[in-house]
Structure formats: C-alpha cells, structure tokens
Write a sequence for this structure.
C-alpha cells in the first residue's frame, strides 16, 4: 500500500477547512483512507539516516503521511487527494475532464511517430500536452512525486511503463519514438553537462542510488528505446532518464508528456491519471490537449482517452450486498459523494465512471463506494441468514492432540520445510525420482527447493545433522502434511497428514519408535488386531536396513513404515549414528 506525504497546512488550505489530527484521522477513515503518521521532514530524515546532523537544515513543517489503496492511482498526489475529498464533502461536483485540440486556426496537433524497431524492446507509446500550466514550488514537487509514485506502483518500477515530461517550448514536433544501437544514441542526460552515448550512460549511472535499479531493464538489449524531436534533439532514453535540453522548471508553461510501455493499457491509465490530476493547474482547468500517436502499423490514434463510461447497478442488489435498506434516491445521493450518479428507474442507478477511476472494474467496486458514502461504521451489524456453528477442523484437532501426547512421550517437535530437493526424497533415500509421485516445482530458484516433500523423514534427518553436537539420544517428531501427485484429484495432487518420529542413539533403538507407535494407537483406541486394528508386517524398503523394516497396517491397509534406516541413507545425510524411524498416515483415524 503506497503512502503519500502531504504538507498539512497546504492540504487544509486547499480543503478550505482546518482539522485537528484526530479529526482528520476520522475524516480519512470515512473516505476509506488511513492517516499513517504525523511527522516532519526533519523527523523523517533523522529516522531514515539515524543522524541528527543530516537533518539540521530540513523543514519542520508538519507532514501527514496517508496510506492510499494500491488501486487508487488518483489519490497519489495532493491534487487528486484534495479533489476526491472536496467531492466527498460536497464542496464541488466531480470535474468534467475534456480533451481539446491545439489553440489557433490550422494548428496541427503534436504528433508522436512510433517506428517498427521499437517492437524489439518497448513497442507502445502514448502522449498528451498540458497547455498554459502554472507551477509553484509545491505543485512542481507534487508533479515529480506523482510520477515517482506511479513508477513504483502501476508501472512496476518502470518495467511496464516509463513516464517522460518535457518543456514543449524547447522542442519542435513531430516526435519520433525509435529503437537504436546504444552507440548511436548520444545526448546530455538530465542535470548533466557532458553528452554521453547509451553505453557510456549505462556505465555512468551504474552506481547511481536511484537509477541503477532501472538499468537492467534495457542494458542487455541490442537496441535502446529513444525519443527525439524534429531537430534530432533527444527527449529521453526510457525507462532510464530524460534529456537535459527539455527539462521542466518552475517557468515551464507547456508540458509534453510521453509514456512508453510494454503494456498499452497500463500506459493509457498512467497518462489519464497524470493529466487529470495536473490539468487543475492549467489556465483552462480540466482540459488536456490531445496528441496523435502513429503506431508502427501506420494507425493514428488520439491520446489521452479521458473516457467517461456508464455503468448501471441495481439498488436492491446493492442493499443486499452491503446489508442496507436505502431508497434509490438516498443511494444516489450517497454515491454522488464519490461518483457522478443519477436514478434512471425505480430500482436502477446509472453511474458515470470518470477517467481517474480505473480501479472500477465491476459492479462490486461501485458497491464499495456506496458503503464508503454511507459510512462503514454506520452499517448495521447483522447475523448471517444461515446459522453455522463453528468448530475446529477434525484433522487439525487430532493433530494438536497428538503433538501434545508425543511431546509428553519425550520427543522434541521439529518443523521442517515443505519443499526439498529431488535428491532428498530420491537418491539419498535409495529410490528413483521417476518412481516417486512427487509434485515438481516448474522453475525452482534453488537446488534445495525443487519438489514438494513426499515424506517427512528427510527433513528430520537434516535437523538431526544440524544438531549432531547435541548429547544423545536425539528423539525428534513432526506431524505435518506431505503432498503426493494424484491424477484423480481435481488439482492433480493431494495433501496427506503424517506422523513421523526418529530416534537417534548409539544403538538404533527400534523398540523406542515401536513403543511410541503403540502409545499413539492406545490413545486412538486402536487395538492390536489384524481385522479391526493395527499390526506390523515385514517388508523390504531400500531406505531401511534389510530385515529391519515393517509396514504398519490398519484394518488390512498399509498406512506407513517402521524400521531402522539403512547406513547409506544415514551417510547421505551426514549422520554417523544409527536411527530408527516410524512414519504413518494419520488421516485414517479422523
């Protein structure tokens, strides 16, 4: 969840009202936000760096740090936050964002031409112009900060979308978005004095605190994306850095915004959000000059979209989902605090979704806004229509009971990884991996986590190996799930709850694990009987010493193994003392 820092006095001035910290916290909660912290720039720097000296020149102006839902891109800056809160308070109606053509008769719109070469690295681009904008120091900082917030959020650290903003008066259209070899790209990067090629730029910024994170996105590509104007002046090298020639200052009046992307939908959302928020500072508020983008296929489209779409919701369904009993008129009033709404039928509301609310994908998102408009704290608490008395899941209940009893029998509980290597369940256990019904990880990050365990024994043996210096005997147990591939299962695999115990001593101590098995069966009230209870039957298993292994049978069905582990198994797990083990499926006793 992103956090936005806004200056308290600036926020209250824009809202036209002053709050105490507690009052503003309650107000944020009503709007669906959370006031995370009240701090100052000085306190923030001291907290981050741990040095009071580093913050001695920092401002002590109060800053509100507000937690914003990850999908509310329109609230990531002061402008969007103020707009949303003012609509919620009923001070203003929702703004009508419109795109307009260039001013002046016969003046052509700015054009961005995308070449076919960009398909190799970053195939999409959108653009727009903010005309007659007026920046102050605070609004300029907010403009830069919103770009950074969008880059970290929906842009996924510039991998999906990269934003470039430029002083249009320093450039000459039309603009071209191309992909060139790094050595053929040469320009002066932002806030630098020396021109660099693409290769030199990568080397120069490899130690930069912020920009080094983005270099791997294009570094290994044979071509780098680049945008330049009609005179060949480089605007930017997305997603790394803009050119110094077109940098924005407080005196900038016309801003050219370009977004290059690997995901066109995300680029459109980012552009809509950015221009809607800062069109408030234009001479003609809430208007944006469109640009024509010519795709690699030759198709021309206008951006930004700034599309208002209409959705209809049922009043009855909305009441049922939230647990209210409001009339259509009252619900329309509540929803107008967040979205433009009107009643079109006795049970139907028509909601207009603005270009700033790309988070609204379904009627349920509108229901959420109705609940916010009504007030979460005011929603009446009701019992479910159908009563269900909760109880502990039987398998988990039995698991907890067995854990306690096995611990009282002198065994120490272990909790091992569910994932393990193929060798752990196969080679080290004297088995072949292709004969084991294991679930394999498609793209394992490490050799230690290649498959989901099919037995609890390897994990406990690793635990023993890590505690070899502890005095003997070592008696460990675990009651956990294993996962087995199962073609009959809906998901192709099934979980199986097992009990596993190991005794490690100077002698194998088979009688110790046998005694534990008898104790568990006694607790489960399972008799020693071939027909109605449990018994042992000799068997051969390559993981166990020959003649020292038996199957545990319950009502004639094999549910586990008990025996003395084979010396080669112990050697594979770097153990030198003999071990006896019992492992069985406990689901039969639920």
């Amino acid at each position: 969840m992103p956090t936005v820092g806004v200056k308290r006095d600036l926020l209250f001035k824009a809202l036209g009202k002053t709050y105490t910290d507690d009052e503003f916290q309650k107000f944020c909660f009503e709007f669906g936000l959370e006031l995370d912290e009240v701090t100052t720039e000085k306190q923030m720097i001291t907290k981050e760096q741990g040095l009071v000296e580093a913050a001695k020149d920092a401002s002590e102006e109060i800053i509100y740090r507000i937690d914003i839902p990850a999908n509310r891109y329109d609230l990531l800056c002061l402008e969007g936050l103020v707009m949303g809160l003012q609509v919620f308070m009923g001070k203003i109606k929702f703004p009508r964002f419109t795109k307009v053509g260039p001013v002046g008769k016969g003046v052509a719109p700015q054009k961005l031409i995308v070449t076919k070469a960009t398909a190799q690295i970053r195939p999409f681009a959108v653009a727009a112009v903010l005309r007659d904008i007026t920046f102050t120091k605070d609004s300029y900082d907010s403009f830069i900060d919103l770009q950074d917030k969008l880059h970290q959020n929906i842009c996924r650290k510039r991998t999906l979308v990269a934003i470039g903003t430029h002083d249009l008066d320093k450039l000459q259209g039309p603009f071209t978005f191309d992909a060139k070899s790094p050595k053929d790209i040469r320009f002066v990067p932002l806030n630098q004095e020396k021109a660099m090629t693409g290769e030199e730029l990568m080397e120069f910024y490899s130690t930069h605190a912020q920009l080094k994170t983005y270099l791997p996105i294009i570094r290994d590509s044979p071509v780098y994306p680049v945008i330049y104007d009609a005179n060949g002046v480089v605007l930017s090298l997305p997603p790394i850095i803009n050119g110094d020639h077109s940098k924005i200052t407080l005196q900038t009046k016309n801003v050219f915004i370009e977004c290059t992307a690997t995901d066109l939908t995300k680029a459109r959302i980012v552009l809509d959000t950015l221009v809607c928020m800062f069109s408030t500072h234009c001479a003609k508020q809430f208007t944006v000059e469109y640009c024509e983008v010519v795709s690699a296929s030759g198709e021309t489209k206008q951006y930004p979209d700034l599309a208002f779409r209409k959705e209809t919701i049922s009043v009855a369904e909305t009441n049922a989902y939230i647990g209210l009993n409001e009339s259509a008129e009252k619900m329309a009033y509540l929803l107008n605090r967040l979205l433009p709404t009107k009643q079109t039928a006795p049970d139907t509301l028509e909601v207009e979704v603005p270009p700033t609310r790309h988070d609204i994908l379904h009627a349920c998102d509108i229901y959420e806004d109705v609940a916010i408009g009504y007030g979460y704290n005011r929603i009446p608490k009701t019992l479910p229509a159908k009563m269900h008395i909760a109880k502990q899941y039987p398998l988990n209940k039995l698991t907890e009971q067995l854990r306690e009893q096995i611990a009282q029998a002198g065994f120490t509980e272990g909790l091992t990884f569910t994932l393990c290597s193929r060798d752990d369940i196969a080679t080290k256990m004297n088995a072949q991996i292709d004969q084991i019904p294991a679930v394999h990880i498609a793209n394992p990050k490490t050799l230690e986590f290649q498959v989901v365990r099919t037995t609890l024994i390897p994990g406990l043996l690793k635990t023993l190996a890590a505690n070899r210096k502890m005095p003997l005997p070592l008696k460990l147990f675990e009651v956990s799930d294993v996962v087995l591939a199962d073609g009959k299962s809906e998901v192709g695999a099934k979980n199986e709850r097992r009990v596993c115990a190991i005794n490690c001593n100077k002698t194998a101590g088979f009688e110790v694990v046998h005694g534990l098995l008898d104790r568990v069966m006694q607790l489960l009230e399972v008799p020693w009987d071939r027909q109605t209870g449990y018994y042992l039957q000799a068997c051969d298993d390559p993981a166990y010493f020959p003649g020292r292994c038996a199957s545990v049978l319950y009502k004639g069905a094999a549910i586990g193994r008990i025996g003395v582990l084979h010396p080669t198994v112990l050697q594979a797990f770097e153990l030198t003392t003999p071990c006896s083990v019992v492992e069985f499926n406990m689901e039969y006793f639920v």
In short: The longest helix spans residues 137-152. The domain at 394-589 is CATH 3.30.930.10 (BirA Bifunctional Protein; domain 2).
